[in-house]
UniProtKB/TrEMBL annotation:
Belongs to the cytochrome P450 family. Its cofactor is heme. The keyword Ubl conjugation does not apply. It comes from Rhizophagus clarus. It comes from the Eukaryota. This is Cytochrome P450.
Length: 465
């Protein structure tokens, strides 16, 4: 068995150290106990895996499972009761109907991002201070995502943008309650939370499901009527909802609750992560104005590829090499100390001989990867925006030294979509504005337990002369 780190507090074990000084605490555990060790947190033994055996967790599908582990933390299946039909096909559907069509969606994505940027940031003829960048980014990112998923017409409604931007925050609100009940019996907090959701005592998804059902029903009804009226001359809308309707639903018996729930699932996995990553990137850009000119010159050169409407071709993304490196570096240093939970599906043995029993929570000690000089190069703790320019390592490329999107065949299927959105957005921002932090200092992430959250400090946007 992995060694259990000594603890000094009875009952709560390592819980206090885990949340109060996570970075230093894990560093000491790694130095004293090796690459694989266990901690006693919230009434349960959890195992943490460092760089040497991390890939075993990510690639051994018969032993380690992410979906079950995440469900233990947030009972999403109880919140979204109609996901059973899509439970084993959600990644396949996303790849087929969205990821494989990214080239097609390039123009729409840019138009949505540019118009949302104008709406939420504006011209900034006079310097403008914006606080809580994350909230703003959820609204901006929600524009292209809703356009792609639910269609151009419905994505113009403010309540749709609100649902896309707020659903994830509302869904995870239940996690703000510390799992104190797990000290009585491991899993008791999850049982209470899932029961509340199933019985409808508390379900933050309901109001968002109602909005989605209303707009989806309106759009589907319109499309079916127009198809029947115009026949072969009907102009088919090209978006995710049309693709899934034609391939997963009987037009004579459309279950709108299922459609709304699958939409909620994709909102959950796309909006928060992309907005969070983009917020970190903007904060790094504003904190380090010394790199702005070099990035600006690259984006000026890239902009020469744009058409008469200022829209870039899909291939232009490949020429944003410095910006791509900047995004990758920002993502690398903004990931939590601990991330990507798994649970063992059976008694399992690591290549070093250590064994973990069936049902054991297993987490990745990602700081062990990102702070390692042999994997990242010199000064791995410092932010060096052009570290990855000539390394053939794009911001969406997974590997042993970059696991923010997971690994193996279960790596995040939407990572290319997320990175494309971030790059298109930053391209526009860099060309339009000069940025600096309100404090005039480097604003690093907020450390909350093992998580790194974007700073909510103000950023000054000023129109580039």
């Amino acid at each position: 068995m992995p060694p259990l780190v000594r603890y000094k507090y009875p009952i709560i074990g390592h819980t206090y150290d885990y949340y109060t000084n996570s970075e230093e605490f894990f560093k000491k555990c790694r130095e004293e106990y090796g690459d694989v060790f266990s901690l006693y947190i919230w009434g349960e033994v959890k195992t943490f895996v460092g760089k040497e055996h991390m890939q075993e967790v990510l690639t051994r599908d018969d032993s380690f499972d992410f979906t079950q582990a995440f469900e233990r933390i947030l009972p999403l299946n109880a919140m979204l009761k109609n996901l059973i039909k899509f439970e084993n096909s959600s990644n396949k559907i996303l790849k087929e109907y969205v990821i494989n069509k990214l080239r097609f969606y390039t123009e729409r994505m840019q138009k949505c991002l540019n118009s949302a940027t104008q709406k939420h940031i504006g011209d900034c003829d006079e310097p403008k201070v914006i606080h809580d960048i994350y909230s703003m980014m959820t609204k901006i990112i929600s524009n292209p995502i809703s356009n792609i998923f639910i269609g151009e017409e419905e994505s113009k409604y403010e309540e749709i943008i609100s649902t896309f931007s707020e659903f994830t925050t509302d869904a995870v609100y239940i996690l703000r309650i510390p799992p104190l009940l797990d000290f009585i019996f491991p899993g008791l907090q999850y049982y209470i939370n899932s029961t509340m959701l199933k019985l409808g005592i508390y379900n933050p998804a309901v109001k968002h499901q109602e909005v989605l059902i209303k707009h989806i029903k309106k759009q589907v009804t319109k499309r079916l009527q127009e198809k029947e009226k115009y026949g072969d001359s009907w102009k088919r809308p090209d978006d995710f909802i049309q693709d899934i309707l034609e391939n997963w639903f009987d037009p004579k018996n459309i279950k709108y609750e299922e459609l709304a729930d699958v939409m909620c699932l994709y909102i959950f996995v796309s909006i928060h992560t992309t907005s969070n990553s983009c917020t970190h990137a903007i904060m790094n850009l504003a904190s380090r104005p010394e790199y702005a000119q070099e990035l600006y010159e690259e984006q000026l050169e890239v902009q020469k590829e744009a058409d008469e409407n200022g829209i870039l071709p899909f291939e232009a993304l490949n020429n944003m090499k410095k910006l791509d490196s900047f995004v990758r570096e920002s993502l690398r240093l903004s990931e939590g100390v601990i991330t990507i939970p798994h649970v063992t599906l059976k008694d399992s043995t690591f290549s070093n001989g250590l064994q973990v029993p069936k049902g054991r929570p297993v987490f990745l000690y990602t700081d062990d990867v990102y702070r390692d000089e042999s994997l990242q190069g010199p000064n791995p703790k410092s932010f060096e925006p052009f570290r990855h320019v000539d390394t053939n390592s794009s911001a969406s490329k997974i590997g042993k030294n970059y696991v923010i999107f997971g690994g193996g065949k279960h790596a995040c299927p939407g990572r290319q979509l997320a990175v494309n959105e971030i790059k298109f957005f930053l391209h526009n921002v860099i060309l339009r504005y000069n940025l600096r932090t309100e404090s005039g200092k480097i604003e690093g992430p907020k450390i909350v337990g093992p998580m790194k959250l974007p700073s909510n400090s103000g950023i000054i946007f000023e129109k580039r002369k």
